[in-house]
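Example 9 (inverse folding). The structure is encoded as follows.
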């Protein structure tokens, strides 16, 4: 089963191609002057056909990512507004013992220290002591939490302003990096249909398959009538009465109906 979440990231003014020196009020970015997700849109973060990228993770997200059944909608907050930054589908967790170190080595992540050090926020955090920063970098450059198929990853050229009330009956969505908010697949399609074509691999990932109960938050705002029409065109139709195939006959003989038979428009 699949899970979809909204995932907050530290804000970046360089479209997440490298650190931008944005100031933070808390967490890792406040303490060290940069964040690992600031390279999420770096053009060379590709490994064995996967896009690799970073965010904090929750236990629930890690659980679904172990089998690549996680979808992430990345959001950021800046000057009182919130934005959709990018999307990743079919996300796998990079284990810290084997995969992550291999990615870090192959992509020469360690060599990108200068992009962080040139930021005033980093120099201030380390009191302009380059030696101390490099000691920190030696053990902290290693974090790249996620990977997904290249065709199921997109980072928007410009952040897309979002309306929090479209998701929840609240004026603001979560902004804490170590948290998430779950989303239904229909809500994902509603939001993404404004920016992606219906036949894109990302849209098809959210339109197909079975999503876990956790992906249907009770306090989620229902989709608009316009969005429901779009969703109906994209998603497969579920048969209320499965056709009489041998498989279904076998289920019927057991006194049951096979609930997982689909056909497409």
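The amino acid assigned to each position is listed next.
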């Amino acid at each position: 089963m699949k899970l979809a979440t909204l995932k907050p990231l530290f804000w970046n003014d360089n479209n997440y191609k490298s650190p931008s020196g944005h100031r933070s009020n808390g967490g890792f970015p406040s303490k060290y002057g940069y964040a690992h997700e600031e390279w999420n849109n770096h053009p060379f973060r590709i490994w064995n056909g996967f896009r690799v990228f970073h965010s904090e993770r929750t236990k629930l997200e890690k659980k679904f990512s172990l089998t690549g059944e996680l979808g992430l909608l990345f959001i950021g907050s800046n000057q009182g507004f919130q934005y959709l930054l990018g999307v990743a589908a079919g996300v796998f967790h990079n284990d810290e013992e084997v995969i992550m170190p291999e990615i870090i080595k192959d992509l020469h992540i360690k060599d990108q220290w200068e992009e962080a050090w040139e930021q005033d926020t980093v120099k201030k955090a380390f009191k302009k002591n380059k030696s101390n920063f490099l000691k920190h970098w030696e053990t902290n450059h290693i974090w790249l939490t996620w990977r997904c198929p290249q065709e199921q990853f997109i980072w928007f050229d410009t952040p897309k302003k979002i309306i929090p009330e479209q998701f929840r009956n609240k004026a603001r969505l979560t902004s804490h990096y170590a948290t998430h908010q779950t989303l239904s697949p229909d809500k994902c399609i509603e939001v993404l249909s404004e920016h992606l074509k219906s036949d894109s691999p990302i849209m098809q990932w959210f339109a197909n398959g079975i999503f876990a109960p956790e992906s249907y938050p009770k306090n989620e705002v229902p989709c608009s009538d316009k969005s429901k029409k779009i969703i109906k065109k994209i998603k497969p139709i579920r048969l209320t009465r499965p056709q009489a195939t041998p498989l279904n006959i076998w289920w019927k003989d057991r006194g049951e109906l096979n609930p997982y038979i689909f056909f497409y428009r």
